[in-house]
Amino acid sequence: MVSRHELTVTKSIQRSTGPTFHLATRFLPRRIRHQTYVLYGFFRVADEIVDDPDPPSPSEQRVALNHLQEMVLGGRPPANPVLSAFATVYRETDITETEIEYFLDSMRMDIDTSEYETIEELDGYLRGSSVAVANMMLAIMNPSEPEVARPHAKALGEAFQLTNFLRDVREDIIEYNRVYLPKAMMRRNGVFRRELAEGEMSPRFAAVMGELLEETETRYRAGVAGIKYLPDDCQFPVLIASVFYAEYHRLIRAQQFDVLTSRPHIPHHRYLSLLVQAAIHWWRSGDPEAVFYRVSAVDPSSEVTAHEDVRRLVSLGDIVHRVKRVIPSGYTR
């Protein structure tokens, strides 16, 4: 069992470094919420090895990732509370060694790879950086039909990560010397890496952003179509996480795709507005897919009809109470 101290540490990491995800996590049932804090803490510890502002040599980073892998899989004692907690969750759930290896392999790719030629190559990176994460989340949620839910979880995990890439273009190249916009897409529109580093906004760059944004929204559509396969008490939290991440698309479009001079930012009052809107529509229909298209920045690819026979799993009063309780004053990202 994860100790109280380990839980406090991992929860603090998520709250300080991933506030959008943290807010959605607060709506998960306790049995899933605590394990989610632990998973996120592990992801951040691994990420910090390759995203250190003053990084050690590539070989030292690889050694550190190898040691981390051994610690969570039981090959050596965990070096800190985060890794100890993750090792416990790994033993107690259906998280597989394969998914851990996929995730850490994506961290190793960040050591050596600073750009991707095609969307297919980028998908190879996403297999570890986001799909493995989605599969680990499925393992702790334990849906009744995991193989039915899995391809939808894959698509949604990819969509979240691609949204991060769209939002963080400037940060990724300036701070980490990485470009996650596919080179073929950039070349087709006449955009050069130098322009990103210099913050040179142009209609050509806007075209690249628009193209990748559309690809990302295709994955949102595939992803939210499978939220209904998750356990009842996990559906609303995953729905609201999807709405939050997709909100960046509204901001990106409002900025005319200019993420080079101004990073999109969701203010506190907008999080609250989205939560209340989603809660009201969820209370009325209980249909995650219909609610997503009613509230989010993503348009449906086809007409969406609410299922009339779905139980109203969460009452409006309960959700409004939890909204007031979980959103701290001045919450921003």
Structure commentary:
The protein is an all-alpha fold. It has helices at 4-17, 19-25, 30-50, 58-73, 81-92, 97-112, 119-141, 146-167, 169-176, 183-188, 193-197, 203-224, 232-254, 268-285, 288-295, 316-326. The protein has a domain at 1-96. The protein has 16 helices and no strands. Helix 13 (232-254) packs across helix 14.
- The radius of gyration over CA amounts to 20 Å
User: So what's the overall shape?
Assistant: globular
Count of extended strands: 0
- Structural class of the secondary elements? mainly alpha
Strand content: under 5%
Q: Tell me, rounded to a whole number, the average pLDDT.
A: 89
Straight-line distance between termini:
32 Å
| Helix share, percent | 55-70%
The helix-strand sequence is HHHHHHHHHHHHHHHH
Largest sheet: none
Q: Uncertain runs with pLDDT below 50, 5 residues or more?
A: 302-322, 324-333
Number of helices: 16
